[in-house]
Structures are given as structure tokens and as C-alpha cells.
Specification:
about 240 residues, 9 helices, oxidoreductase activity, Fatty_acid_desaturase, oxidoreductase
Length: about 240
């Protein structure tokens, strides 16, 4: 407030709780779904394929321009061009990864076998265990915002002393943002960082994880194999292009 104005009082937990709606909503989730036009639920293979090939074409265009023209730039322009390429290509890769995510939701086509096959290839190429993520992500959507049962990105509690006393400030949030951008993705898959607490060792690469049932465990091994093939392919590419 300006001079002479009334300062806002600190918001307490009780004030926040008073604003939390407790009355039953006048509609159900099914009512929201009925309000969506039926054609929005149709999974067009042609439309989905168009977006996939479009994104692949964009990625190839960035690669072609970069490999042919950035080496021709003089310093310091080449130092500026490379980070721009990383950002643009990374954003384009994320689009393809997101299509792999949609394939896991069976949203690409009407054919489950096609969605799983294509999703396995795409996500393995981006070092993501397709079936492992598909099954854990299913649990996330079933329990979104549940403090007890959500699969990932569970809100921190005040009882978490490290977070509330050390990291819950602008500098701590900046640090955690950098860590999440650089490490959270592989750490979540490998060690269940940011995931729901479970008994025993938990990893997307470990078929005996409590989240997976017996009928799914063989496909977890298949996801691991896809990752190994992708790592080997990257090694061969690096060796062939003298990038090692």
C-alpha cells in the first residue's frame, strides 16, 4: 500500500483453510466430459501422424542448418549460435517426447498395439523407459494431488525441515529449479526422486517395484532393453562423428 495505507496482514494457515471450498460441486466429472463435443474423443491416425512427421521434420531442419552453417560462423557468433540451437532443438525434441507420452495414454490412434510399438520406439530413443513410465503415469493420473497416493511431484510438507527451513526461499527455489531441470528426470526414473515413498528399492528400471503388477514386469525388462539399445546407438553415433 502507499503512504498512509493499511498494510496487509500476514496470511495464516487458518485464513487459507477458510477459503478452501468444502461444499459439493453442482456437477460431476462425467458432466464435464459430456460437455465436450464427441469428435474431440476421436483418435485420428492421420492427424496424429501428421504432427509426428511435422515435428521430426522440424528437428531435422534444425540439425541440417546447424551442422552446415554454425561451423562457418566466426567467434563469438558461433558461441551464441550453439545455445540457441540447443534451446530450439531441445524444445522440438520435447514435442516428440510428448507424442510418446500421448501414445502411452492410447491417444494417438485406435490401435493399442500401434500406440505401444511407436511409443516404445520414440521414448526409448529419448532415454525414457516407455512401459515403466506408462504404468507409473497411469497411477499419477488416478491419484493426482493426493498427498498419500500420487505418484510424483507430491507437495512438500512443513514437517520436511530441509525444505521449509533451507530451500523455501527465492535462492533455494532457484537452486531447486536448476536441479530439477538438469537432474530430476533421470533421478526420478532411477531412484524415484520426487516420487511416492514405497518400501524397498524403487526404480522405473526395476520390475519388482511395488507399482508394477505381475503381468507388467516383462514389459519393464523390455523398456530396459530399449534403453540399452538407445545408449549403444548414441555411442556408435558419437564414435562415427568423432564426438567422443
Amino acid at each position: 500500500m502507499g503512504a498512509g495505507g493499511r498494510m496487509n496482514e500476514a496470511t495464516t494457515d487458518k485464513d487459507v483453510l477458510k477459503r478452501v471450498p468444502t461444499a459439493k460441486t453442482p456437477f460431476e466429472i462425467s458432466d464435464l466430459k459430456k460437455a465436450i463435443p464427441p469428435h474431440c474423443f476421436k483418435r485420428s491416425l492421420a492427424t496424429s501422424s501428421y504432427y509426428l512427421f511435422r515435428d521430426i521434420a522440424i528437428c531435422y531442419t534444425f540439425y541440417y542448418l546447424t551442422s552446415n552453417y554454425i561451423p562457418l560462423l566466426h567467434k563469438p557468433f558461433n558461441y551464441i549460435a550453439w545455445p540457441i540451437y540447443w534451446f530450439c532443438q531441445g524444445s522440438s525434441f520435447m514435442e516428440i517426447w510428448s507424442i510418446g507420452h500421448d501414445l502411452g495414454h492410447h491417444a494417438f490412434s485406435e490401435y493399442q498395439w500401434l500406440d505401444d510399438t511407436l511409443g516404445f520406439v520414440l521414448h526409448s530413443s529419448f532415454l525414457t523407459p516407455y512401459f515403466s513410465f506408462k504404468y507409473s503415469h497411469r497411477s499419477h493420473h488416478a491419484h493426482t494431488n493426493s498427498m498419500e497416493y500420487d505418484e510424483v511431484w507430491i507437495p512438500k510438507r512443513k514437517a520436511d525441515t530441509l525444505y521449509s527451513e533451507v530451500l523455501n526461499n527465492p535462492l533455494g527455489n532457484l537452486f531447486m529449479t536448476v536441479v530439477r531441470l538438469l537432474l530430476s528426470f533421470p533421478m526420478y526414473f532411477t531412484f524415484n526422486i520426487h516420487g511416492r515413498e514405497c518400501d524397498g528399492f524403487v526404480s522405473h528400471f526395476y520390475p519388482q517395484r511395488p507399482l508394477f503388477n505381475d503381468s507388467e514386469r516383462k514389459l519393464i525388462w523390455l523398456s530396459d532393453a530399449g534403453m540399452l539399445v538407445a545408449f549403444y546407438a548414441l555411442y556408435k553415433i558419437a564414435a562415427a562423428t568423432s564426438a567422443t
